[in-house]
Amino acid sequence: MKTSNDLIRSETPAYYATPPVAGCSMCTKWQDDRELRIAELEYCYVLLNRDQFFPGYAFVFTKAHVTELFHLDVTTRQGIIEEVNSVAAALAKVFTPTKINYELLGNMVPHMHWHLVPRFSDDPLWPKPIWSEAHAEKLLSPQGYSGRIESIRAALGGV
To answer: What pLDDT does 22 receive?
Structure first.
């Protein structure tokens, strides 16, 4: 008798066989935003968000063009979730926020990616979602970005 995991595994193409999709901004983000790279993990890439209005705001996105967690075999899905967890733990270590927000949406960019956002009880939008109000983009100097990236990398264990 097949389990639901067997059905998913048998109907799902191999994770790394999924090619980039033309026009997908996530499929090219690792190349497009080289200066914001934090780490390349087994299943995912990690980038700092250019807008640092929320200090430490980062993206974790799958290397392969995948849209849904249930499209993945159990091992791959668990590996991705562990990578997201590791990045969140590193952000918590570096920024000591009140809470980490995990946002996995995909309506606008249908490529599996998380917005990991350290939140602080004194941030201007607390406790509302980060999208609830427009805000002025906060850009850092090149040294500001590289310092923040190095701190997160160190907390990830130098990945």
So the answer is: 87
pTM of the model: 0.88
CATH of the domain at 69: 3.30.428.10
Domain count for the chain, please give it. 1
Burial-class residue 90 by CB neighbours within 10 Å (0-12, 13-18, 19+): buried
Cβ-Cβ contacts under 8 Å for 67 (sequence gap 6 or more): 106, 110, 111, 112
What is the per-residue pLDDT across 72-99, written as a single tens digit (0 to 9) for each?
Answer: 999 999 999 999 999 999 999 999 999 9
Strand, helix or coil at 73?
A: coil
The boundaries of the domain holding residue 120 are: 4-155
Rg, Å, the chain Cα set: 16
- Alpha carbon distance 20, 32 (integer Å): 14
Please report, rounded to a whole number, the percentage of residues in the chain having pLDDT higher than 70.
Answer: 87
Q: Are 8 and 93 in contact (CB under 8 A)?
A: no
CA triplet 101, 53, 129: central angle to 5 degrees?
Answer: 35
- In the sheet that holds 58-62, the strands lie side by side as 37-40, 44-48, 58-62, 113-119, 99-104
**85 touches 91 (CB < 8 A):** no
